[in-house]
Amino acid sequence: MRIDLHAHSTASDGTDSPAGLVAAAAKAGLDVVAITDHDTTAGWAPAAEALPPGLSLVPGAELSTISVDPVTGRHVSVHLLAYLFDPESPALVAEQTRLRSERRWRLRVMAERMAADGLPVDPDEVMSLLPEDGSAGRPHLAQALVRAGVVSSVNEAFGSYLGNGSGYFVARQDTLVEDAIDMIAEAGGVTVIAHPFAYSRGATITVDVLTDLARRGLTGVEVDHPNHDEETRVQLHGLAGELGLVRTGSSDYHGTNKTIDLGDETTDPLALEELVSRSTGYEVVTR
After folding, report:
1. Which residues are within 8 A (CB) of 242 and not within 5 positions of it... i.e. 6 or more apart?
2. Are 260 and 267 in contact (CB under 8 A)?
3. What CA–CA distance (Å, rounded) separates 86 from 80?
4. Residue in 218, 229, 224, 211 with CA at minimum distance from that of residue 192
5. What gap in Å lies between CA 275 and CA 43, rounded to an integer?
6. For 195, which DSSP code?
7. Which of 65, 80, 110, 205 fits a 20 to 30 Å CA distance from 178?
8. Percentage with pLDDT > 70 across the chain
9. 51-61 burial by CB neighbour count: b if 16+ within 10 A, else e?
10. pTM
């Protein structure tokens, strides 16, 4: 079986619609794909409705969270994959609604800063193109820069204008990762830290933090990811074994917003079985 547990649609910052995502997964020869849009479950229903025969869908989300060092107070962004949780859990609905609002506010402020500097970006147009119930992200602004001819690609936009060190960057007030793990557990779901040691993406959590999160109730860790080199994968594989964490592998597919294809990284079927066995909030969708 070929299983990819980390993929995005137009419900957040991917370029494939939810229906297009499952169609692309079938075309790529996957047996199982997870839809994990940022801070939203808006893509679940349309993806399930369009699910082709022979493909299973794992409903999920990628939650925007932070880890705070208790000694230094340093904040580190943590991407938390959540699977098979009850999407109507009140606490989770409230927090996801807050995060989506935060994302839209942030995107508008960044667009307004660019426009004020003379870049050919129309903040109103950028906001009008966002999915109504979806989640806004910097790739939406990157696409606007590509359309305007300011850059030739999304990657160039991030490198020149949208990175954390840019003058246009605006931080979010994300959920504490410990609170997010608790909320997903209460909603019957399971949690996996996405690309935890992807050093090329910026600051990462430490081994000590990962150990603490495992004790807190974290279910798994994304070992095989395009931003993890071989040394990092070996390290994470060993740590997962020591900490009793389920090991996953996924592409982090975003359509044409990234050069990664569905199925470039995959999860072992036994790992998926373990995740499913620990969840009670929602079921895998099959046709």
Report:
1. none
2. no
3. 16
4. 218
5. 21
6. S
7. 110
8. 99
9. beeebbbbbbb
10. 0.85
Cβ atoms of residues 180 and 60 within 8 Å:
no
Is 233 buried (19+), middle (13-18) or exposed (0-12) by CB count in 10 A? middle
- d(CA 283, CA 276) in angstroms, rounded, equals 8
90-116 and 138-147 are packed helices; what angle lies between their axes, rounded to 10 degrees?
30
Q: Are strands 56-68 and 175-176 parallel, antiparallel or unpaired?
A: parallel
Strands 75-83 and 190-193: antiparallel
Residue 126 one-letter amino acid:
V
Residue 166: what are its φ and ψ, rounded to 5°?
-75, 150
pLDDT tens per residue across span 17-68: 999 999 999 999 999 999 999 999 999 999 999 999 999 999 999 999 999 9
Q: What are the Cα distances from residue 21, in Å, to 27, 53, 76, 96?
A: 10, 14, 30, 22
Q: What is the pLDDT of residues 185-203, one digit of tens each?
A: 999 999 999 999 988 877 8
Please provide the size of the chain in residues: 287
